[in-house]
Every structure is written in C-alpha cells, then in structure tokens.
Amino acid sequence: MTxxxxxxxxxxxxxxxxxxxxxxxxxxxxQIQAALPARPDEGITRLAIDTGAIPTMDTTGALLLARWxxxxxxxxxxxxxxxxxxxxxxxxxxxxxxxxxxxxxPRAPVLIQLARRxxxxxxxxxxxxxxxxxxxxxxxxxxxxxxxxxxxxxxxxIVAHVERIGLxxxxxxxLLSFLIGVVLAYQGADQLRTYGAExxxxxxxxxxxxxxxGGLMTAILVAGRSGSAFTAEMGTMKVNEEVDAMRTMGLDxxxxxxxxxxxxxxxxxxxxxxYANLMALAGGAVMVVLALDISLAQFLAQLGEAVHVSxxxxxxxxxxxxxxxxxxxxxxxxxxxxxxxxxxGRRTTRSVVESIFLVIVADAGFSILFAQMGL
Amino acid sequence: xxxxxxxIRLRGIQTRFGMQTIHDGLDLDVRRGEVLGVVGGSGTGxxxxxxxxxxxxxxxxxxxxxxxxxxxETRAAARAVQSRWGVLFQNGALFSALTVAQNVRVPFLEHxxxxxxxxxxxxxxxxxxxxxxxEAGAKYPxxxxxxxxxxxxxxxxxxxxxxxxxxxxxxxxxxxISAAAFDGLIRDLQRALGLTVVxxxxxxxxxxxxxxxxxxxxxxxxxxxxxxxxxxxxxxxxRSYFHGPRGRAARHEP
Lengths: 375, 254
Description:
The complex is a heterodimer. By secondary structure, chain A is of the alpha/beta class. Helices cover 72% and strands 7% of the residues of chain A. In chain A, strands 1-2-3-4 form a four-stranded mixed beta sheet. In chain A, helix 6 (170-193) packs antiparallel against helix 7 (201-239), helix 7 packs across helix 10 and helix 7 (201-239) runs antiparallel to helix 12. At the A-B interface, helix 1, helix 2 and helix 3 of A face helix 4 and helix 6 of B.
C-alpha cells in the first residue's frame, strides 16, 4: 500500500524538472523531509513538477511540498505541475493558501498581564460579594411574601429536602462525630495526664464539642454534602434551561427552588448539630471510660460540672446561621451556572469552598461576639 | 487492499440494551470513497450503529471488519486503526479545557512524532480547511458559536488525514445557511482528500445533496440503496420518509 518516496531534481540551466514518487502521506512525513533537498537552488526560474508517480497524497504531503516550493515562489519562479493527479495539485495549492495567513495571538507583557489578572480577580470577588448580598435580599423578600401567603411554601419539597440533608447524612455524620470525640478524648487525656488532671479531659470534651466542634464539623460536612448538591442540581437545571422554562410559566425559581432548600437547611442543621454533639460526647465517653480510670457515672457528673446550659446554647445558636450561609451560597452558585456542563463543576467547587470559608469566618465572628457578651 | 473490498463490512450485527433488541442481523457494506447517509426513525439505533462501528459499543453478535480486518483486540493495533478515522460527535465533543488549536493538536501528539513547527502549520491548514478564520485557533470552545464549534470539531477529526470520516448529525442545530455551507464543505473535503464519509443525519437536504447512497434503518436491519431506489421502495416507513412533505421539498418536488 505504501510506495517509497522518491525525489528527483533535474537542472537544465535556469529551468528544472522535479519528479516525485511514492505515497506522500502523514505516515511518510519523515522520509519526505529527508528526501527533499535542503533548499531549492535559487537560480531556478522555471520549475516543472511531475507527480505522476504519486498514488496518494494527503494534506501533510501537500504541505511539505508547498513549504519546499515557497522560497522559489518568493523569488518569482514559474512553477507548473506538468503531470500527475490534478486533485493532488489542487491540494498543494489549497494548503499553501491556508499557510500564508498568520495565526493572530495578541499577548500583553507579563507585568501588565499580572496586573490585569490581579485587578480582574479583585473586581470579581467584590462583585461576587455584592451579588451574594443582593441574592440574600431577594430571598428575604421572597420568603416574606411566602410567609404572608403560606400556601406558596412548598411543604412537600421542604420535607423531601429535610430527608436528603438530614436523614441521609446521619450515618456518616454520626461516625465522624463519634471518631472526633474519641480522638479528642485520647489526645486530651494524654496531655492532661502529665499534670495528673485526667478528669479534666471531660471538661475539655464537653466545652470544645458543645461550643465549637460539633457545630463546625456538622456545617463543614453538610456544606460538602448538601451545599454542593444544591449547586449541582440547580446548575444542571440551569444548563437544561429548566429554570428559564419555569420563568416563562410564571414560576419564580427563587420560590420554587431556593426557598424549600434554604428552609430545609435551616430546620435540619440545628438538629444535625445536636445529633453530632451527642455522638461526639458518646465517643469521648467510650474513650474516657476505656482508657482512663473513670466510670461512666463519674464522667456524667464531671460533665454536669463543666458544662452549663449556656455552653450548649452557644453552640446551637450558630447552627441556623451556618445553615443560612451554606444554603444561600449553594443556591446562589447554582443559579450562577451558565452555558456548559463544565460550568456546573466549576460552580460546585466554588460553592463548597465559599460556604466553608464563610462558615469559619462566621464562627470567628461568633467567638468575638460571645466573648463580648461574657458567655 | 483492492478497490472492491468494502472499507467497512458489518455482518449479522446484533445489539441489545437489556431486553430491548436494537439491531438484529444487520448487514452493511461501506464502499471506499463513497458518502453514505444513515437515516432511521427515533430510537432505531442510528447513533448506536455508529458507536458500534467505531468500537465504543460491543455488539452482542455479528462481525465488524474495518479496512478489511476485524477490529483489533490489542491496544497498539487498535490505535493504528483509530488514527485512520476521524469522528465528529453530535455536539462536537471538543475538549473544553483546550483551545481549538490545542484540540486539533491532540491527535498529532497521540499518534505522530512530527516536529513542532510542521504540526503547527498542519494545524493551521486544518483550521482553514474546516472553514474557520485563523484567529479561531486561539479560542476556547465555549467562545465559539454552534456552527463554529462543529467546524472546529471537523478540523480535529481531519487532523490525521483519516481514510474514513464519521459524522453524527453534523448539521443538527445549524441554521439552513450554515447547514448548507457545512454540507458543501464536507463534499469539497471528501473530493479533495478522497475520504470515505459516513453521515448519520435527519437532514433531508444533506441526504439529497451530498450522499451517494442512503442506508435506512428499518425493522432492526438496514436497507442500502441510492436515493432513486428508496423512492420506489414500498416499505411504509421509507415511503413516508422520502415522500413526506419535507422529503419532497428537499428533492424540489411539489
């Protein structure tokens, strides 16, 4: 199927005849490049090309020939095909035409590019913060409208989302919290033993879990599990034009899609936090009873000493705020999806990163607030 | 390979999804250098047939020969076959993280060892051949219109000068002017490069203007004939397809 490449250049004064043979295809590119003389002699003013012995030629072969002919053409030499398949000749002319147009790719200097990127990133973060705030306003107004007409609150959708956010998260959240309790108790006991104060492991557990860790771990897990799901679901609907379809039917996407998710999140996250607190304390208790010389009764008594009701409520009060942040960011990013499926992935990643970031910032804010309140 | 051996030869192809049989004893020969249109009602398995030929789906029965040989089992041999065909997927299937020029470069990187400069020039040639302006090479697929994306995908499919070009609904979603231009482009390239083209399409204008033969999927099999013979066929689906108002309009009949 493949014939060996042959190139023969016969000079007679200023005229020359180029006789070519073989299969001029992509597979033979290396042989063609080797067979062609490095540069055509510039003294040639008339060149006759015979491609009669070429059975097949593809664009690569044609381009290699056209490239080789280019210096001659530039010197104004007359080039003519005298024998061979006219389709091949047309191909050589066609690819050469394509060649002359330069590929435009404007490039700014590196420093300017850098400044441009920094400026762009700054502006877009500020714009995103403003848009999120605006979205919060929109959701609040819609919620107020829905509360005024409770028929517009979609009870079934809320229950379905509570099931997915809450019930389905119980196994993984329980396991995670239990293990956190175990680890915390183990590490605490190890350090406090140096002072002979193992019993204060219980204080460490009670305060840190109830005030901080239970709520924070739950929020982070739910942001990764359900916040991302909000973005992905709504983003897919956006790509499918389902959201546009809703609008044209007079349905408000914020009311239909965002409110049920957000309300379900606000209802569910405090309950999950309570559950996580209990599981983490259970994990800590198991560790304390097994590893230290403390009985369960002692554990409970010490926990009662260490923890006040206010400690519990300080932790629980944060949960609805975290839920609001996760739900808002998840839904906002979902509705920001535009165009392609690729955008869904990008927005989902952003949603998780942003909501975890905001949860931690809010947690820091709460610490300052509670410190000021003397709690 | 003699001119008489079909470039693609399917015998007794059976494909099933669960209990549902899509093709049952389907035979098809694609001749070297022809433009073959594949049509059929929704759900008759046009795209499945295409995916079966290019090895994305294994048939439950039957044999497929490409370039006179069964589809190779080893990866290296399969790659050799894959470098000799180009596929244009329905939505282009351009790699969204790469620019158009980088998309066209992918087959070169995978299958050839040419020097960088030559590949760069070849990429420009392919982009021009596909009817795109040169500056399109630096753009990302998301920055292109639907028609331009199809052309970019065509440039990638043509990268390695394939012997066979598979097109899945190439004109779907294009306006009639772009669709006609795309048809003309396929015809020109087919003539200039001596391609064998298999087109899955619903576009009757495409069928009438550029195909040599038409394969109709009916009753889980295929009937291949030139347009004129299909017009005579008494099968009810084929009759209503080619003699319906759209079919008549495409053939410029009242």
